[in-house]
Design a protein that fits this description.
212 residues; Four Helix Bundle (Hemerythrin (Met), subunit A); 0% strand; 2 domains; mainly alpha
Amino acid sequence: MARARRSLFQDLENRNALQRRRRHARALGTDVAAGTKPKEEPPWVHGAVRFGGWDWLALAILGAVLLGLGATLGRFLWRRLHAHLNRNLTYTERALGALSNLQKYMRSKQPIPLEEWKKFSFELAGVLRRFSDENFKMDSGDMTDREFLQELGAHNAAAPFVHLLAEILGTITEVRYGRKALDASLIPGLLLDSKKFVESTSVEKREEGKKR
């Protein structure tokens, strides 16, 4: 009799424990079978991130990477386009285009630092040398300015302009190899004289004029 009572009491305890587990499982939103543990989230599932669920640091890094890639791609495409356009130009047109690009220094409203003046001076001298090399079939890469002018003097078309080129190169020499800034008021005259030299001595332009 006592054994039957203990068995009945044990059954009641088990049922009560099962009901408590089921009520707890419903409160958690899961169904728990008898004798099982509540379902646990996988270890790789994380809770909500701060700032409204977005990881702003990761987004900022990703944005910076994409911006850098976009800028690199843009520069590459621009260089390819510029090279493609220049490929269809004559050397005279390339020289005149380069001189036109140097006008940005003339239009600047801000004080130009010394390094920019050096850049302008080297680019101007480079335009004149590249044009002369192609126009007169020269190789002035290893020549000094004096040797360059002497070589030009040997060509009939260039001889009348040697003195003009000597003035241009003399003006920018101290800027190229010294610590002297260029007087901005001299830029229009330098570019105009350089353009005059290119247009007046171009073999291409003379040949085009003969064909017409």
